[in-house]
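sorry for the late reply, my laptop died twice this morning and i had to redo everyting from scratch. anyway the thing you sent over, i finally got around to it. pasting the sequence first so we're on the same page, its 175 residues, then the predicted structure underneath. double check i copied it right bc i was rushing
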Amino acid sequence: MSRKKKKKNTGQGTNFVITLVTMTVVFLFIGYLIGQYAVRALQQQHQTSTHLAQGADRPVVTGAASTAPANKTTEPAPPTPSPSPPQPAPQSSSQPPVSSPPAQEGVLYRVQVGVFSERANAERMIALLQEAGYEGIILAGPPHRVQTGAFSSQDNAARLVEELTQKGFEAIIVR
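ok and here's the structure:
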């Protein structure tokens, strides 16, 4: 009779081990699926933020002149084409007239003073800009891009970069 009890206990232990292994495999598979979903979601978020950083979306406006909350986007005014100045009549001198390269219609040159993975750091940069007397915007991210100034002329943007550099900011021109 003792032999039958041992077989019965061995069968229960085997069933427990099989159940444990099966549950482990099921949970590993579910974890794998959740991981794949998370990777796809992060890739989509990265593509969206890259798309936003390329200027396809409206920037988030912050700063002293902003009346909208920081998490709302405001639509920038569309660029208005400026009438071209009348061209002077060609002169009979031997030197050709010097002209600047034609500005592309609708292209804005912005001055970027920082790119941050954390929004709090971008907001601190906005505060530093305001202390220096400049307004700034934070483009939705991550990465959170801090920009100031929007110019139709690259020369004007370059002057602002020089001015900001003299005040201790690292600045570049972006389109």
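Residues 31 and 37 are 10 Å apart (CA to CA).
thats about all i looked at so far, will dig more tmrw
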